[in-house]
Amino acid sequence: MAEQEFDYIVVGAGTAGCLLANRLSADPANRVLLIEAGGRDNYHWVHIPVGYLYCINNPRTDWCFRTEPDAGLNGRSLIYPRGKTLGGCSSINGMIYMRGQARDYDGWAEATGDAAWRWENCLPDFIRHENHYRLDGNADADGEHRRFHGHGGEWRVERQRLRWQVLDAFAEAAVQAGIPRTRDFNRGCNEGVDYFEVNQRAGWRWNTAKAFLRPVCVKRSNFVLWHSTQVRRLLFEEGEGGRPRASGVEVERGGRVHGVKVRGEVILSAGAIGSPQLLQLSGIGPVDLLTEHGIPVVCELPGVGENLQDHLQIRSVYRLTGARTLNTLAASWLGKARIGLEYVLRRTGPMSMAPSQLGAFTRSSSEYEHPNLEYHVQPLSLEAFGQPLHDFPAITASVCNLNPTSRGTVRIRSRDPHQAPAIAPHYLSTPEDRQVAADSLRVTRRIAEQPAFARYEPVEVKPGVQYQSDDDLARLAGDIGTTIFHPVGTTRMGRDDDPRAVVDSHLRVRGVQGLRVVDAGVMPTITSGNTNSPTLMIAEKAAGWILAGA
Questions:
Q1: What are the catalytic residues?
Q2: 231 is in an annotated binding site
């Protein structure tokens, strides 16, 4: 047992966990264990950017969760991908580097009463691990870019390695519709249209396992990595003042169940689905849920698994005339061969592309002071994820409500740690969200109607121009909306007097000693953009607090 005692145990080798393990093990005096339920990230499709198509809903790399049938989606259930491999969701996501808006973090500071979460105080944590391509030996980089971006860190940010004429035309149409151009989505206000920057290196996906574990971290004698290891529950002992203290974890490894002790802290980085599930399995959560499943209550925290937020994207498909899109390029085996050869020889072309290339941020109506919509625009179309491309040239313009007011839940179904929890996002469950959904489809139509896009003679295939009223469009949003895989908020941080807060502003679990949650679940409200990079920032900030506290 002496060999199985650590200063820190990090549960989950995903986006946050890999960075935490790197930072905590940098001091050779700290013995750090990183535990991942999934396997190694040695599946070739993890590393080829277009490989997300083969990683999502693949049990080798994805937990293959599904949502509960959702009334807001007219009874539909959605696949709900979560990474199950080293690197976690950074190994299967869209690779988009996006911080959100300054107001997101200022809102967190207000919700927690802690100025550490203000935008200006989060910016150094973004910069610390960043390695931005525009600063690669570039003495001419403008001062503003140097103020907002870093170089030499582990997290590589690059421009995409292809452009599409049809997307350039859509961008120009967006400008004609009143959306300004931008050179940088990540300076605190992301309003505008441009190609997304991505987490890639020379045409390969750059996940957090590459960035933070290899080669530096894995060579440290004080660092231990267990993959293919399921954490069954947290272990507790009596701490100071009679409060429970996390004393370790119970794991299932190599066909054997055993405990592992911790001297310092257990840190949950299992994500906005995995962390609340593990807390509930360990007796921390709503009393009625724990009692229902016969789990002894360690600490009553009614907010565990509540406050689930996600971005629901509504896909508009436009059939085009005379356009070069992936639908036509990949229509034959010869076309596919050319695409493959280009990637092998140059690491460019469609195999190097992120799921979405062009982005835009704007308002659904004039009543919004800040951009509340995000577009992911793709030079392709299909009926649903995993299905073949359409046999006609087309683009997909997906739009999401950045600040949904709908709230969902994550709740265990049993005491079995192998059984997936019940995930109920409750999409479009508020009048505000249904109105934004209807208005966002009108914004998409306004862009597609502009002169810059007219030469392609766009025809709206989905949802269809016959749908015009608010009620029609909101119902259609429920029919065609899909998740962009941004669940957050299920272990949210808050003030001491907030009964629904799960962790305090330094991410310590309330009522329990020696236990933190460090992942997207701690966000009080979802960021106004993609959530991977904000999760890294959270981990960077938490690592500093943990080391300072030690």
A1: 486
A2: yes
